[in-house]
Amino acid sequence: MSLHAMLFDEALSRNRFKKIENEVAGLLKTLDIEPHFTKPYSGQSKPIERAWKDLAEEISKHPAMSGAYTGNKPENKPENYRTWAVPLDVLERHVAERIAEHNARTGRRSETAKGRSFDETFAESMRHPATIVRRATEAQRSLWMLAAKVLKTRPRNGEIHFQKNVYWAPELNEWMGKHLTVRFDPDKLHQPVKVYDPEGRFICDAPCTEKAGYNEQAKAARHERNRRALVKLNKAKAKLHKQMSAAQLGELYAADPPEKPEPIRPTITRIVTGNLAIEQETDVMSQDEYEAGIARGLSLISGDSSIIPFPRGDRPAGSASGRKSRAET
């Protein structure tokens, strides 16, 4: 088997010459693109290499990326290495700006540019009558924008289970228990996935019917790594427990006595009423004292102290509490 066949024509042998069953066909083979080999270490036979060099310099070493550049080799790391991590949206905008500036720069000395920019050279080539351009269809563009994985559908209903999410469409009923190629956006796992048969023919778009898993593959992978690390840690913890006695474990896990909490008082208080209220002692005037006080008050008003009190049955007429009778005076 030739190197060309192993790398591009045979999907079973494109992973470093390892044959993997049901491996997804490569992008070049799927799009029917024929590659051409070039001479190693020969920049003239690979014009794109110069573009990669320029972009690497202009993107990575740009002042806006200071602190994030890692160097082209481990021993060539800058002094401010890892002092800043570029947010993804900032990096995407920076790369787009550098590529636009790279293509618009004039003074290119290539055989076709002749002092013009790459944008001007490309625009002229597109206007030439002999130029025939093959444009990719929407179905073909989805191939290079999506990740791919071969999955086996469920035998009973044709459902596709991936990252704890479930995908299904009526067309999958004909492929129950079969291996199919699923293409998906790793950052949007809750969106519909594209399903292809083993020959690469499109079957359907299968929506996510059960969103039980993660929406991003990176988060799912990170969760799985954390889960494995936790399981490993628990095993090591259990192994250490076996090396200690029950008394040592009890002393290790003995908790300090809890502090006595302070009573919680309400913000607004009110006076206690009802049976719990403390009855205040009051000075109640007797009936006799009340009548005697009335008599004294009237005598003071009239200036006459000879007012005869109203007779009562329990004492002689003309006598009152707190006063002497006229005969006694």
From TrEMBL:
This is Mu transposase C-terminal domain-containing protein. Pfam families: DDE_2 (PF02914), Mu-transpos_C (PF09299). InterPro entries: Phage_Mu_transposase (IPR004189), RNaseH-like_sf (IPR012337), RNaseH_sf (IPR036397), Transposase-like_Mu_C (IPR015378), Transposase_Mu_C (IPR009004). Residues 11-123 form the Bacteriophage Mu transposase domain. Residues 154-204 form the Transposase-like Mu C-terminal domain. Residues 101-120, 306-329 are annotated as: Disordered. Residues 101-119 have a biased composition (Basic and acidic residues). One of its GO terms (molecular function) is transposase activity. GO terms for biological process: DNA integration; DNA transposition.
